[in-house]
UniProtKB/TrEMBL annotation:
Residues 9-216 form the YjeF N-terminal domain. Its EC number is 4.2.1.136, 5.1.99.6. The gene is nnrE. It comes from the Bacteria. This is Bifunctional NAD(P)H-hydrate repair enzyme.
Length: 509
């Protein structure tokens, strides 16, 4: 799913009106219906609702929502915020103003003294500003937003929290801090920047039927990975296949006390479709691996405690290195040797990333399309510091372009950047996955998918999605608190089948 900028959304709006064609007021009605449809699934008629409206189209939505909810027996009141008494609202605001039934209490406020001290309501629907915000909020609007934020009510924003820009980090000036945002058609970039979290809350995108042709034609550097994107990517295991078909994977890692990391990667790699896996570990890991992962073959290093040399690396469709590796001098030597020789698709994680960050010569040795999987601290070691999330995103994009690698920056909405400068935000995963070994599992999945023949871009997007989905399925059963990395592996088969089963059903029709 593409992420469009506020100006692109405005154009999509205008294009739909002209080409569907549909009257702008009818499109507003459709959007309001879509909002109400989702809202009423979450909140019953027992709740008292106050709808705070600006006088643009976001406010117009608010008025239509008020009318629709009232017709469904919700107890609704409307507050219109209009600093300049004489200024008319947008055309569609004014139409919906006239359509507002008399039974809905309507208050208009024009200056700060009229802002109620306390909102006596269960839910506030925030429809002051939407995607048309053009400058930070001040004056009367600021007063109202502060009052909304201080209220005890549950706050639901229409399209986007009032005061938040669609395409960037939070501006100065007050911004609504909603519990939930119900947004139209496409997610906004602002929803995916962690520091905006207080101004987004939970969010849901509802379809309002903007032109799919127009959206398909738009250039966008940012994408949000949806389950339908994933279904299109997933390959079928062909009937006449054998274990060689799915490729040979090599994992390198582990050190004394950290053999568990490479065990997790190995198990995840095999669960992600690799045909054959060879895991290279220091000698101390031999029995552990053979016992914990009987399906993988094990080769051992000359060193007992650390990786100090490489096995042969030819004939592998994918190599993953890093989990549990450590940053010993001898392991650095082995990594340097690997990078000098390697032509295979590769995944680089954990201490292998730290070693690259500490040794400037290594980054240029990475083959094009290598996947690196840093968490933010590791990425900072690689690419330097940033001031805010938007800067971090730019840095990630630039790093990928400059070094022709894919960066999988781990976190909520893990972002995958490609050498073309595109960024794909993941839509699965939960806070329970912030647990030891979760990253090792991801490295295994990515290596497995690469060995299976997926391109680096597809392996990264798909792997991150499946990792998150397995974590979500595990959390559904086990809860987030107790989730451990092994659970993610245990639920990987369910993640793959849940996506592929739907896909094949679609294919059969
Ligand atoms: N996405 C769609 O296709 C649809 C969106 N709808 C809704 O329309 C809003 C966007 O409406 P718009 O009229 O363009 O802007 P706003 O309502 O967000 O703002 C109104 C108006 O306010 C002025 N303004 C901007 N910033 C400030 C400020 N800081 N202080 C004071 N005034 C400000 C500016 O002139 C704006 O134009 C979208 O979010 C949806 O809710 C449609 O209903 C359906 C189709
Ligand atoms: K809003």
């Amino acid at each position: 799913m593409k992420i469009l900028s506020a100006p692109q959304i405005r154009q999509a709006d205008a294009y739909t009106i002209e080409h569907e064609p549909i009257a702008s007021i009818d499109l507003m009605e459709r959007a309001s219906n879509a909002f109400v449809d989702y809202f009423t699934r979450l909140f019953g008629t027992k709740n008292k609702i106050l709808i705070c409206c600006g006088t643009g189209n976001n406010g117009g939505d608010g008025l239509a929502i008020a009318r629709l909810l009232s017709s469904m027996n919700y107890e609704v009141a409307v507050l219109v915020v209009r600093p300049n008494k004489e200024a008319p609202g947008s055309a569609d605001f004014e139409i919906n103003y006239r359509l507002l039934p008399g039974i809905i209490p309507l208050t208009e406020i024009n200056d700060n003294t009229q802002v109620p001290e306390k909102f006596n309501t269960d839910i506030i629907i925030d429809a002051i500003f939407g995607s048309g915000l053009s400058r930070p909020v001040e004056g009367l609007y600021a007063f109202v937003i502060r009052a909304i934020n201080q209220s005890q009510a549950e706050v639901v924003s229409v399209d986007i929290a009032s005061g938040l820009f669609c395409d960037t980090i939070a501006a100065e000036g007050p911004i609504v801090t909603p519990h939930m945002t119900i947004s139209f058609q496409l997610p906004k970039l602002a929803f995916l920047l962690p520091e905006n979290d207080p101004f987004v809350g939970e969010w849901k995108v509802v379809d309002i039927g903007l032109s799919s042709d127009f959206i398909a034609d738009q250039k966008s550097k940012s994408h949000y990975v949806s389950s339908s994107d994933i279904k299109k990517m997933l390959r079928r295991r062909e009937k006449y296949s054998h274990k060689g078909t799915f490729g040979r994977a090599l994992l390198i890692g582990g050190s004394y006390g950290k053999i568990g990391a490479i065990v997790l990667s190995s198990r995840a790699c095999l669960r992600s479709g690799a045909g054959l896996l060879i895991t290279h570990v220091p000698q101390c890991g031999y029995e552990v691996l053979q016992t914990a992962v009987p399906e993988c073959m094990v080769t051992t290093d000359a060193s007992f405690e650390y990786i100090s040399e490489l096995p042969t690396i030819q004939n592998y469709q994918a190599i993953g290195i890093g989990p549990g590796l450590g940053v010993q001098e001898m392991s650095l030597k082995a990594l340097r040797e690997l990078l000098k020789d390697v032509k295979n698709p590769m995944v680089i994680d954990a201490d292998a990333i730290n070693l690259i960050a500490q040794n400037d010569d290594l980054i240029d040795l990475l083959p094009a399309n290598t996947i690196l999987t840093p968490h933010p601290k590791e990425f900072e070691r690689l690419a330097g510091p940033w001031e805010n999330d938007l800067e971090r995103l730019d840095l990630q994009r630039e790093f990928s372009k400059k070094h022709e690698v894919l960066i999988v920056l781990k976190g909520a909405h893990t972002s995958v950047s490609t050498p073309e400068g595109r960024v794909y935000f993941n839509s699965t995963g939960n806070p329970g996955m912030a647990t030891a070994g979760s990253g090792d599992v991801l490295t295994g999945i990515l290596t497995g998918l690469l060995s299976r023949g997926y391109s680096a871009r597809k392996a990264a997007i798909l792997g991150v999605y499946m990792h998150g989905l397995a974590g979500d399925l595990a959390a559904e059963k086990l809860g987030e608190e107790s989730l451990i990395a092994s659970d993610i592996i245990d639920y990987l088969p369910h993640a793959f089948t849940s996506v592929s089963a739907e896909k094949y059903l679609i294919k059969k029709k």
